[in-house]
Amino acid sequence: MEFLDFKAISNAVPFKKMLDHFNIAYEEVEGQLKGESFIVSKEKNLYFNPKGEDKGSIINFLAKHMDIGLREAAKEIKNHFLVQKEVVEEKKIPEYTLEYDHPFLKEKGITPELAEEFEMGYYSQRGIMAGKIAIKIKDKSGNKVGYIGRNIKDNGNGKYFFFKGYKSEHIYNLCNVKDKSCILTVSPFHVVTLHAQGHKNAVALLSHSMSESQEELLKQFEEILLLHPKPDNILKRLSRFAFVKAPE
Fold first, then answer.
1. What is the model's pLDDT at position 244?
2. How far apart (Å, rounded) are the C-alpha atoms in residues 165 and 109?
3. Residue boundaries of the structural domains of the chain
């Protein structure tokens, strides 16, 4: 059985990082993080529920939030924030030959021409992207950092596949947007369909959460239209530096 040092894990991970990762809404006020049913002391990295009796560490909080055991919560935090991931060297980034004319893309209203422009398509050869829609990811300067994959079958592995060493520090299509306003969504497919409708300033987080690195990148915008199924946490964070609208 894997050894888990609860105290070390609790002390190593700031509450704010965990709340942002799991997209839990809060407000930051005078050294405290205040949410719907919790108040966190940033200095002590502990929380309590003003409406109830539960309190404790980041592990206690996540166990309560996800309705899981303490050991499972500790493992979740360790895997997300403390396990060092191997960095992918640039020379190892592959160049895939993709099929742009695919039924999965057509169902989403993405033509072969659009798929080729955005370099997303079905990969039929061998490798970790085999049988997936591969999507090229670029950094803010337009340099390729790798591919993510979209599973097109329900195989229990989740919708998206991220390459080993991937860091949540990129904004999809950011390198192509020069405006001071943007449409921020969660999916690269939304970006492409919005582009087809004439909205050339659409970008995507590539997940439902927003990392600190992504937040920094978005500070280039003065106006943001946020299209997100659970926008509260991200809306509050972006509102510190931009005018943000998040329609229902």
1. 96
2. 31
3. 6-82, 90-162, 174-245
pLDDT of residue 8: 92
> Alpha-carbon distance 156 to 138, whole Å?
27
Computed over its alpha carbons, how large is the radius of gyration of the chain? 20
Q: Tell me yes or no: is domain 6-82 CATH 3.90.580.10.
A: yes
Measured distance CA(85)–CA(87) in Å, rounded? 6
Distance CA 48, CA 51 (A): 9
Q: What are phi and psi of 138, to 5 degrees?
A: -120, 155
Residues in the chain predicted with pLDDT less than 70, given as ranges, are 1, 83-92, 154-158, 164-167
pLDDT of residue 84: 56
Instruction: Show Cβ contacts of residue 215 under 8 Å, excluding neighbours closer than 6 positions.
Output: 237, 238
> Hey, what long-range contacts does 120-129 have (CB within 8 A, 24 or more apart)?
120/188, 120/192, 122/98, 122/152, 123/96, 123/97, 123/98, 123/99, 123/149, 124/99, 125/96, 125/97, 127/94, 128/161, 128/163, 129/96, 129/161
**Which CATH number does 90-162 carry?**
3.90.980.10
